[in-house]
Design brief:
The protein is mainly alpha-helical. The chain is built from ten helices and four strands. It folds into two domains: 3-220, Serine Threonine Protein Phosphatase 5, Tetratricopeptide repeat; 235-283, no CATH class. The chain has helices at 3-12, 34-44, 93-100, 105-127, 131-142, 150-166, 170-183, 188-200, 204-217, 222-258, and strands at residues 49-52, 82-85, 268-272, 279-283. A hairpin with a 6-residue loop joins strand 3 and strand 4 (279-283). Helix 5 (131-142) runs antiparallel to helix 6 (150-166).
Length: 285
């Protein structure tokens, strides 16, 4: 897939908060079932988003990574920082399907249109640096967007993840990215956001897998190309460090066991067979 084709997939067909035009007005509609909205508000009235807050530099608008900067780990002491934002718990897909049983075909279309209007409103709130209200609006949209509108729902999750990034709620943002990708596996922006969040959470293996997936979908993505060069040495260095620490721990354990017999691990030499790669242990008196 060419870069232009990849962009069409993530920008044109289902616009998200960066590329959509400014919302001139959000049309009020009286055709929605008021009882449905009341049930949604009542269900969510006491639900809050809580996540460890670690600083993520945010752009004025959503980029492919939702304002997560250059993707490198920004270390900040977050031991006693908490981000609490408005409601962000949507109806489960089962609850939404059950609710939809009472909708007429006309109400399904009306709710789909209203969800789109709410998305545009949320986008404007995001651009105007009000991510908390944006999260609330995206959640309201998810609660009326028809269950079978997979890509539209994926974009709502992707946009809500970007708003959570602005609030520095990384774990919750990763969760929303996962939901978006589950609904739309080729959603490049959600994959890029999750990849950069994984890096900041010191999960380079998962980040690399997402970058590889992005590259498969759109080889023109520079972040995906660069990450496939940058991350493998980081992963290898991490693995070597873990192996060294593990061997040191095993050696300490071995010395503790052998000490009553007047022995230590220095009495044992481990030698690798260059042909088979297997190890043999020789005892030295």
């Amino acid at each position: 897939m060419s870069q232009a084709q990849g962009k069409n997939h993530s920008d044109d067909e289902f616009q998200d908060a960066l590329s959509e035009p400014p919302l001139a007005s959000v049309t009020k509609t009286s055709t929605l079932n008021e009882q449905i909205i009341e049930e949604i508000v009542e269900k969510q009235s006491n639900l809050k988003l809580n996540d460890d807050a670690v600083k993520i530099e945010a752009d004025d608008e959503l980029g492919a990574a939702g304002g997560s900067g250059d993707g490198e780990n920004n270390e900040t002491d977050s031991s006693d920082k908490k981000t609490e934002s408005p409601i962000d718990v949507e109806l489960s897909i089962e609850e939404l399907r059950e609710l939809q049983k009472d909708w007429t075909s006309e109400e399904v279309e009306q709710n789909k249109e209203k969800a789109n209007q709410l998305k545009l409103e949320g986008n404007e709130l995001f651009k105007n640096d009000d991510p908390e209200r944006a999260i609330k609006i995206y959640t309201e949209a998810l609660n009326i967007c028809p269950a079978d509108s997979s890509k539209e729902r994926a974009v709502l999750y992707g946009n809500r993840a970007a708003a959570k990034i602005k609030l520095e709620a990384r774990k919750s943002a990763i969760s929303d990215c996962c939901k978006a990708i589950e609904l739309w596996p080729e959603y490049v922006r959600a994959l890029l956001r999750r990849a950069k969040l994984y890096e900041q959470e010191e999960r380079p293996d998962e980040a690399l897998e997402d970058y590889k997936r992005v590259y498969e979908i759109d080889p023109g993505q520079p972040d995906a190309r660069e990450a496939q060069i940058r991350l493998p040495p980081i992963i290898n260095a991490r693995n070597e460090k873990l192996k060294t620490e593990m061997m040191s721990s095993l050696k300490d354990l071995g010395n503790m066991i052998l000490k009553p017999f007047g022995l230590s691990t220095t009495n044992f030499q481990m030698k690798q067979d260059p042909n088979s790669g297997s190890y043999s242990i020789n005892f030295n008196q």
